Amino acid sequence: MKIKNRIALQFSLIVASILLVFSVTIYLTSANFRQEEFFERLKKKARTTVRFLIKVKEVDKSLLKIIDRNTLTALYDEKVLVFNNQNQLIYASVDDQVIHYQPSLLDEVRQEKEVETFSGDNELVGLLYDEDGEQLVVLASANDRFGKNKMLNLRYTLGWGLLAGIGVTVVLGIFFAGQSLQPINRINQEIQTITAKNLRQRLNEGPRQDEIGQLAMNFNLVLERLEQAFDQQRSFVSHASHELRTPLAALKSEIQLGMRRKPSPDEYTEIMKNLLEDTDRLIGLSNSLLFLARTLENLDQLTLKAVRMEDVLFLAQEELISARPQYRVAIDYVNIPEAETETLVQGNEELLKRVALNLMDNACKYSPDHRVEVQIRTDNSHCWVDFRDQGIGIDSEGIQHIFEPFYRSGNAKIYEGFGIGLSISQRIVELHQGIILVESQTGRGSVFTVKLPHL
User: Fold this and answer.
1) The domain containing residue 308 runs over which residues?
2) Where does a domain end: 282, 297, 312?
3) pLDDT digits (tens, 9 = 90+) for 343-377
4) Residue 413: helix, strand or coil by DSSP?
5) Number of domains within the chain
6) Mean pLDDT throughout 105-119?
7) What pLDDT shows up at residue 449?
8) How are beta strands 371-378 and 328-333 bridged, if at all?
9) Is residue 282 located within the same domain as residue 352?
10) In this predicted model, what pLDDT tens digit does every residue of 406-438 receive, in sequence order?
């Protein structure tokens, strides 16, 4: 079912339920008021009749019957019966009508003083009248034809009004639902025109003051992120192809050179050395690409546990010094943690070691003294690790792009590397709900800061 039809149906059901409850309430209230009012009329008639009968000596039973027949009987089919203590009928206002009652009703009236009940289609009231120690029971019965006809007319009026109201509600519900969903239909039409070839297209956000405008804004943000992802993918493929083509071209050139002439032993050794270097470069680049791909693919499957940052840093230091003995790594505290948990983070030790190793290696590689200072500091919520060097630094334009895959600033291209390490490091830190901050000046060094929430 379409949303428009569902909204119209729900709106119609709600309004129909309200109208139904309203109509039933009016009808039941009116019926109860009619009944109570008619019972009061019967009581007044019963009291008037018995008072005329007992207190007014000038009015005998025959005259009283004439009065009853010429006043209320024609209107209400009313009849009044009066009984003495022995349940003997001493007065009946009309002889040609019968009030059906049980003898126990007279006893109930004597006990309850007043009784309201029914006799067939007629309402019936019973009253106890005490006069000079003599208790008389008065039964008054009548059929409220006029009141019931009014209730019948009211029932018809409410019924037809309910049907008309439901019909109008359905029509208006469909109309207003269509009007309300028209912006969504417009958005759907605009979305259908967006493909991978025109991701720069954006939806019309309108005044941005309602939910539809907010939906369009959020969808535009998604499109913007998709566009960035596509651009990064294209850039990644382009850079990866370029980085792979360079060592492959060098390999091909060396092989062709060796095949064209017979090299001397020294030339052969030089050729093999160049081939080995190019092969190592290809292996390093392939491993970096593979690690980046696996990191992105297995983000949801990584096992996170409590990891102490000092241990991660010392493991990275040991691995780096083992691979490059000329590098120097100094690890120290800026402030002594007040609690053991201040350097304890929830993470994956191998991935965090990879971040530390990349940042240490970059700092040493781009510094003339091949030295990096690693400083640990903590606060109430986060653990901070600074990687400080006195290297070549990064210009302001390069800082905006250093975390893009394969990006390398102009002054770093003479150094060995692929431009993937910082991109991998940023993704790993973001996985751990942290961030990497950079401060750098050209020729004066850089400070990379890893900020992670601690336990």
Assistant:
1) 300-453
2) 297
3) 899 988 888 988 998 899 889 988 888 999 999 99
4) coil
5) 3
6) 87
7) 93
8) parallel
9) no
10) 777 766 766 776 677 788 888 888 888 899 999
In degrees, rounded to 5, the angle at the alpha carbon of residue 422 between the alpha carbons of residues 419 and 425 is 140
Residue finishing a domain among 242, 265, 297: 297
Cα dihedral 190, 193, 196, 202 in deg (nearest 10): -30
Residues 242 and 318 reside in one and the same domain: no
| Tokens matching residue 122 | 């007629």
| pLDDT recorded at residue 110 | 87
Out of 208-217, 248-257, 281-290, 440-449, the most confident range is 440-449
Residue 330 lies inside a defined structural domain of this protein: yes
Starting at the edge strand found earlier in the chain, the sheet holding 114-119 runs 89-92, 79-83, 134-142, 122-131, 114-119
CATH number for position 142: 3.30.450.20
Claim to verify: residue 234 and residue 221 sit in the same structural domain: yes
* pLDDT at residue 394, as a whole number: 86
Please state the three-class secondary structure of 293-354 as a single string.
Answer: HHHHHCHHHCCCEEEEHHHHHHHHHHHHHHHCCCCEEEEEECCCCCCHHHHEEEECHHHHHH
Give the closest residue to 221 by CA, choosing from 237, 199, 236, 243: 199
